[in-house]
Design goal:
Elements: H1 2-11, H2 16-29, E1 38-41, E2 48-51, E3 56-59, H3 63-70, H4 81-109, H5 115-129, H6 136-144, H7 150-165, H8 174-189, H9 198-205, H10 209-214, H11 224-229, H12 236-240, H13 244-248
Parallel strand pairs: 1-3
Antiparallel strand pairs: 2-3
The chain binds zinc ion.
Zinc ion is lined by residues 97, 101, 152, 155.
Length: 250
């Protein structure tokens, strides 16, 4: 996998065959084989999608849709090597993001009854109905509060942390590492405000305050990345730690 990742970054590959190979390697590595049957590359309204009921992963390889995302980061020269590399990084991030959705499906099937598994199952119930069988209020939740949906929040955070771990393969320049670390810290901090945490906010948006109050966030020894990814309550001091990004990745 190290060689393939290095190859993809070195030539900024957008080749479907390279990604298909990479995704199957990752599926195998993460023991998700039972949850992925097919990978499709096609035009979508989103960068990627996982349909748990069909065990289907879909990816959008259209550079234009990715271009609009990247313009947020102030790069205007689409032919520059910086842009090409950042586009590749974002493509890798969306691969890892969708694979974390697969992982969530696997976690939801686990019979464990600790708070993390309860939160994952709540999220997967919503995810399994998305996008076609959602109520209007739920559709609004995805549309306007994407980052508050815990399955999305955790996929954003875990994928970024995981890609940062691949720095050990020598994949990124110092500027790219800074970009990924800034992304991770920004994502992690989102939603921790005025003594509330993202998990509490999510359950209140879902009108499930009672269910939230029943969660015991210390029923297992979750690591810091898991806690922050799923928006569990944490000590304020943790978020102010200057070295937080490094503490979240191996
Ligand atoms: Zn997602």
């Amino acid at each position: 996998m190290e060689d393939l990742l290095n190859y993809i970054m070195a030539i900024c590959s957008y080749e479907k065959t390279d990604y298909e190979k990479l995704i199957w390697l990752l599926v195998n590595d993460k023991e998700l084989d039972a949850y992925v049957q097919e990978i499709k590359f096609k035009k979508l309204g989103a960068l990627g999608m996982y349909i748990p009921n069909d065990k289907l992963l879909k990816f959008n390889m259209n550079k234009n849709i990715r271009r609009s995302y990247l313009s947020y980061y102030g790069i205007s020269d689409y032919y520059s090597i910086e842009y090409q590399r950042l586009a590749t990084i974002n493509l890798l991030l969306s691969v890892l993001h969708e694979l974390y959705h697969v992982e969530q499906a696997k976690m939801a099937d686990d019979s464990s009854d600790d708070s993390l598994h309860k939160v994952v199952r709540e999220g997967m119930e919503l995810g399994r109905r998305s996008p076609k069988k959602l109520k209007l209020s739920e559709r609004m939740l995805y549309r306007f509060h994407y980052h508050k949906v815990l399955t999305e929040r955790s996929a954003e955070i875990i994928s970024t942390a995981e890609l940062l771990e691949y720095r050990l393969y020598g994949l990124f320049t110092p500027a790219e590492l800074r970009y990924l670390k800034d992304q991770l810290i920004g994502l992690v901090n989102r939603g921790y405000k005025n003594g509330t945490c993202p998990c509490e906010k999510y359950y209140s948006l879902r009108n499930k305050k009672d269910e939230y109050n029943k969660l015991d966030f210390n029923d297992k020894d979750y690591d810091l990345l898991t806690r922050l990814a799923w928006g569990f309550p944490v000590d304020d001091k943790i978020l102010k730690d200057d070295n937080l990004a490094l503490k979240l990745v191996k």
